[in-house]
Predict the structure of AAA+ ATPase domain-containing protein.
Amino acid sequence: MIAARVMRGPVGRAVIGAAVPLPGGWARLASGLAEIQPATQALAQGVMAGDRRSLSRAITLIESSREEHRRQAELLLDAVLERRRSDDSQSAAAKARATARAAAEAAAAAASAKGSTGAEAMGAAAEAAVAAEAVVDSDLARGPATRTEEESAASAPAASGADGGAASELPSPPAGPGGEFHGGWPSTLRVGIAGPPGAGKSTLIEALGQQLCAWGHRVAVLAIDPSSTRTGGSILGDRTRMTELSRNRRAFVRPSPTRGALGGVAAHTNDVVLLCEAAGFDIVLVETVGLGQSEVAVDATVDCLALVLPPAGGDELQGVKKGIMECADIVAVNKADGDMARQARLAALEYKRALTLIPPKHPMTGWRGEATTVSALQPDTVATLWSVVTRFRAEMTAHGEVRRRRAAQAGQWLWSQLEAQALERLRKDRAVVTAAAGMLGRLSEGSISPRRAAHVVLENQWDTGPKAEA
Ligand SMILES: Nc1nc2c(ncn2[C@@H]2O[C@H](COP(=O)(O)OP(=O)(O)OP(=O)(O)O)[C@@H](O)[C@H]2O)c(=O)[nH]1
Ligand SMILES: [Mg+2]
């Protein structure tokens, strides 16, 4: 049995479950699982209370490669997940209550409306049920029309607010489903903003983020820092480009080092997204640079992948590979302003045509990809782009695709974690290292292939199964 890992949440309940029984062969792992430290416990509570400084420090813990930090990071994530689960069930109960209430009201209204037909009454009931769902469901589609004066005031940039700055407390989240914790799954929206260097991703995020904050959202931006793949200075560059958003007290901007992770997407991005949501950010924007693997990898993290492309057509369009188009939910041709407006429109038309030629990414839904133009310098076009994102989200929600996709992504991340952790264990395993070193002579003689040698090393170190002959 793993030692009970229990911490008390703000309301005094246990937020980490009781001891988990392990199958016999795994018992030795138990010794490697630490108990949550008071500092981690405090961090988890700080994050869940929406404290920006705690969030910043928690992300640093998640990104740390030190063994003891990694154990604490796991416990921190457990605490956050436990809280999310509890809020989810509260949210589901509230939803059921509201739906039942709306249906009852609709039925009463139908009964009192003399002359209404049965079909009309049923239609009214169905409409009311949908309305109730909309009330209880997240207000992710919140746009300019729903902005309130109070929210506008709250979204005004704080005097100082880069993470860890003086304005470390977020404004308290609006009362909504799930009580005070507004960022619970799946009432959040994760959008990947991918595209080639210089396409205008950061500029667009800065403009979009400001608008979203003004509409009452809380926006976390994770800029996948490409410093490990390109020459330095990019953190400063991105931070500089998002100056306004970094200062906004409803926003949180955080570069994530990639440390050479495949595709340029930080290995921990998924965990960082979860933390941001736990801290009350209902929209998470993930910027990633590059064409190719990074889009595919970021697609395993977000609900919606927007590909931001420069206004180019013809030959340059050929450079945008089919595979990338296949994983884009939305293609946005940026810089559609001034001299480039016409070219951007033509490029968007070409992408639109290209999208009809590839298999749909979400065949169970009506979404067939969409190409549009945008200019980060023109707020109305940014708002239009966001309306495409929320339309996409609504279509996915209507088909249960958001939950299904997140579950599939969790499976993908599990395997990515398994690969990373298994490899690390192998590299640290003295017997494996010795056996591998023992193969070097035969390898250099050419009497065994590296492939066969790896097989032999693994099989001979494995606890069970047939032993391989060298
Ligand atoms: N005219 C015009 N210029 C833009 C627009 N968006 C971005 N730019 C300019 O394009 C250049 C690159 O913008 P960034 O936002 O840094 O591009 P990026 O895609 O984030 O670049 P990397 O992070 O380096 O990959 C900057 O000089 C911006 O001012 C736009 O909508 N219109
Ligand atoms: Mg950028």
